[in-house]
Design a protein that fits this description.
The protein has 109 residues and is an all-alpha fold. 74% of the residues lie in helices and 0% in strands. The protein is elongated, with a radius of gyration of 27 Å.
């Protein structure tokens, strides 16, 4: 009498899938500590510089460029509400959106 194992009864693609699943499961178990958010400060310098840029002169430049694009669109004779609303939204987003997003992410983490 011949004894068959599970590997003998599965097609080759299923064996590959089972092996891949086992590797992913082992990686998840062994690397779980790296997935935790906490006091990691790897990107704090970049976040601080980018936030300061958007809240300072960078946000003003983006807002002015957006407003200039809206004015050019209005001067070309094709009026739409988006040409006024988009620059206003960009200005509000650059001025108040950054602190809101930063505080939300900080509170979540």
């Amino acid at each position: 009498m011949e004894i068959k194992t599970l590997g003998d009864t599965l097609p080759p693609w299923a064996q590959s899938l089972a092996l891949a699943t086992a590797i992913v499961a082992a990686g998840t178990v062994l690397g779980a500590d790296a997935a935790f958010a906490g006091t990691d400060a790897t990107f704090n310098t970049a976040l601080t510089k980018f936030t300061n840029f958007l809240q300072g002169s960078g946000g003003k430049i983006i807002t002015v460029l957006s407003l200039a694009g809206g004015i050019v669109g209005l001067a070309s004779g094709r009026f739409s509400l988006g040409q006024v609303a988009i620059p206003v939204g960009v200005g509000v987003g650059a001025g108040t959106g950054i602190p809101i997003v930063t505080s939300t992410v900080t509170a979540t983490i």
